[in-house]
Amino acid sequence: MNSTSLDRSLVEQLVRQALRQSSPTSTASPAVASANAPGWVDGKPNLRVSISARHCHLTDEHVEILFGAGSVLKAEKDLYQDGFYAAEQTVMVVGPRRRMLGSVRVLGPTRPFSQVELALTDSISLGIDAPVRHSGKIDGTPGCVLVGPAGSVQLTQGVIRAARHVHMNFADCEHFGVHDGDMMKLKISSPDCSVTFEDVLVRADKAAKLEVHIDTDEGNACNLDAATEVVLKKSGCGCEKK
Amino acid sequence: MNSTSLDRSLVEQLVRQALRQSSPTSTASPAVASANAPGWVDGKPNLRVSISARHCHLTDEHVEILFGAGSVLKAEKDLYQDGFYAAEQTVMVVGPRRRMLGSVRVLGPTRPFSQVELALTDSISLGIDAPVRHSGKIDGTPGCVLVGPAGSVQLTQGVIRAARHVHMNFADCEHFGVHDGDMMKLKISSPDCSVTFEDVLVRADKAAKLEVHIDTDEGNACNLDAATEVVLKKSGCGCEKK
Questions:
Q1: Which terminus of chain B has a smaller tally of CB atoms within 10 A, N or C?
Q2: Is A199 in contact with B194 (Cβ distance < 8 A)?
Q3: Are the C-beta atoms of B4 and B154 separated by less than 8 Å?
């Protein structure tokens, strides 16, 4: 794996991660037994906020169509969540009216369905009206054409704007007093452009590490790279009400 | 003025405005005398949230250099604030490393200094590290090259990401209990991607109409076109504190 071969957009965006160590507001006392939970540092959750640039997930079948019979995804860079990676492979995504995004990174491993995740800015530039959806909820979403070096695939659906979410393990859940499927809020303090993101869905898994995923529009709206503090909170401080 | 000649980006972005009639949270009783304040409807403030796509402001001198001796800006579409307009003219903005934005709309009237306002996504694509600044605060900001049909201009500074702000008149100020220079917060409720923008600067003027300006990244982060409610509030509800 040669990190110097990563293209600029990948370096800048896909794996651009704010390794900010926050002091997440706790709404429950951490269990003593959580000290060794995945991703914890010094016995505490270690919040990471990452920008997911546009990318796609592919089925095994589509990998072979796009990159040639017998092809498999090759890991180029591991993502923070164990077992997931940015692949060497990229595809062209073609929308209606002959607009396209020339190089969209494939993330691995493969999945039972193919899915393209765009920021809204990307989808406007591509001319596709991508709805905000959580990963895998692609029924009735628009399709597109994927073009690889060995072939192309017509997706009848699967183009979405990935809804913001936070991966966490069950020790993190206990720390924050939340459960899988709950909503949280994330405040990013950034000079002259602080933002509180509502609707941050909890996706709990025993192996997950605490990490919020937002897209490039969201990351740019709050200038994440310049952020001075990130705070993740359970929704319901009362501020949501007018 | 022929609106059919507007290019797609202008139609889609520059003048894309959420004409949402909100119920702004009042922190002061509106004065009876305010019933005829600019922009008020039925004796109340009528909040508008508008997305400002990338654009530039030019001096008279630069208009002549870029578009030819004797040239003046020609209004193509009036903006919501009286006296301001999107001009027919566009310029090419060239950054370092030969990257460029081919068609950036000029807004009128002319100003004592030229200034380019980009979303962060634009500035990344252009390769310019544009700081978040309020309009006119351009000391020490990066420059760029502007290219028009008749000539080019080297700006030594003036490329910014415009900080979010709200225009209002003094009746609006009284209604919200704020003054020129205060900060407010704007909550956009949008399916699966609600956002609260902090750091919304009050820019008060007797002739202004109540209008928040955010950029395309901010508008896309909350999918403004799909928003169901917008609420402008004085900062300080307590939610800012952890």
A1: N
A2: yes
A3: no
- How many other C-beta atoms lie within 10 A of the C-beta of residue A171? 21
Report cis status (omega within 30 of 0) of the bond before A131.
no
Q: How far is the C-alpha of A196 from the C-alpha of A29, rounded, in Å? A: 24
pLDDT tens digits, B180-236: 999 999 999 999 999 999 999 999 999 999 999 999 999 999 999 999 999 999 987
Q: A19-28, A183-192, B29-38, B210-219 — which is least confidently predicted?
A: A19-28
- Please give the structure tokens belonging to residue A113: 């369905």
Phi, psi for B137 (deg, rounded to 5): -90, 70
CA-CA distance, A27 to B55, in Å (whole number)?
44
Decide if the complex's ipTM is over 0.90. Answer: no
Q: Is residue A105 within 8 Å of A86, Cβ to Cβ? A: yes
Q: For A22, name the nearest residue in chain B, comparing CA atoms only.
A: B242
Enter the CATH code of domain B164-234.
Answer: 2.40.40.20
Q: What pLDDT was estimated at residue B225? A: 94
Confirm if A154 and A164 have CB atoms less than 8 A apart: no
Residue B242, pLDDT > 90, answer no
**Residue B63 near residue B71 (C-beta atoms within 8 A):** yes
- Cβ distance B12 to A124 less than 8 Å, yes or no, reads yes
Count interface pairs A-B at CB distance under 8 A: 95
- Which residues are CB-neighbours of A36 under 8 A, at least 6 positions away? none
Encoding tokens for residue B135? 């309009």
| A155 close to A95: Cβ distance less than 8 angstroms | no
- Per-domain residue ranges for chain B? 53-162, 164-234
Contact A116/A66 with Cβ under 8 angstroms? no
Which tokens go with B133? 């600044």
Closest CA to A195 of B187, B242, B53, B47: B187
Nearest to A193 among B163, B233, B238 (CB): B163
As a whole-number percent, the residues of chain B with pLDDT over 90 amount to 79
